[in-house]
Design brief:
Blueprint: H1 2-23, H2 28-86, H3 105-126, H4 136-159, H5 164-189, H6 194-224, H7 228-245
Helix pairs in contact: 1-3, 1-4, 1-5, 2-3, 2-4, 2-6, 2-7, 3-4, 3-5, 3-6, 4-5
């Protein structure tokens, strides 16, 4: 139950971000800065929390195997969804495909949001296996990164003519599924050997890094330009400080 609630909490940031992106008229540069900050947070979290935990739990081979598999699976799924109209699902401008242009794009966008959020939520549940306490660093990092994801994507959905029902229905569903995924991460993997848990943690890290490279960072750089690197570094530093304090 605790694992599910922590996953739900981190997933709720998607809904909060969606509300801000849909109702608050933010400039593209501000959205890009928020995306860059969220990217830095996630890069730090997967480097110092997820990958480090995976290595110490299961060794180099299991960690490397899971990391590459995660990146490969996400890249393949992202490639397929891009062909179905979800290529720009994280973009806040007018890049997203409208329902009128492609009738299947709405479903593709929803599935894309799902595959972006599931790996993050699973690792929250897995982090509770060893000691029964959740990794607060992971929860905070995922919450801080989910906020700009929901914000940017919902702003783009609105410009593509998506209805409020569709936009908030998607993010509410993903938030609820995040809770279920976190619960599953704890309950399904508790009895597995350390190598399997390590590979799964690294798999999530690989999927997250591939997601950042394919979806969040292009949005951040297009409008942030020369300031993107510095803002990303500040997000990285914040998550690094949290990991050391933890």
């Amino acid at each position: 139950m605790q694992a599910g609630l922590w996953g739900l909490l981190s997933g709720s940031a998607l809904l909060i971000g969606a509300a801000i992106g849909y109702f608050v008229p933010l400039r593209q540069r501000i959205i890009a800065a928020i995306m860059a900050f969220g990217s830095g947070v996630l890069i730090s979290a997967l480097s110092f929390d997820l990958m480090d935990e995976a290595y110490h739990r299961g060794g180099f081979i299991a960690t490397a195997f899971g990391f590459l598999i995660g990146a490969g699976v996400y890249t393949g799924a992202n490639w397929f969804l891009a062909r179905q109209g979800a290529r720009h699902r994280k973009r806040s401008g007018h890049q997203q495909v409208t329902q009128a242009d492609d009738s299947s794009s709405g479903l593709a966008l929803a599935i894309g949001a799902l595959i972006d959020g599931i790996p993050e939520s699973i690792v929250i549940g897995i982090s509770m296996i060893s000691g029964g306490a959740v990794s607060m660093v992971a929860v905070i990092a995922i919450f801080l990164s989910n906020l700009p994801e929901g914000l940017s994507s919902s702003a783009g959905m609105k410009k593509a003519g998506r209805t409020k029902t569709y936009v908030f229905g998607v993010w509410l569903s993903i938030a609820l599924i995040s809770g279920v995924a976190s619960l599953a991460g704890y309950s399904l993997f508790s009895g597995f050997p350390p190598e399997i848990i390590a590979a799964t943690t690294a798999l999530a890290a690989g999927a997250i890094l591939a997601m950042l490279s394919d979806t969040m960072m292009p949005e951040a750089y297009e409008f942030g330009h020369n300031f993107t690197g510095f803002i990303t570094v500040t997000g990285f530093l914040l998550a690094f400080i949290l990991s050391r304090l933890g």
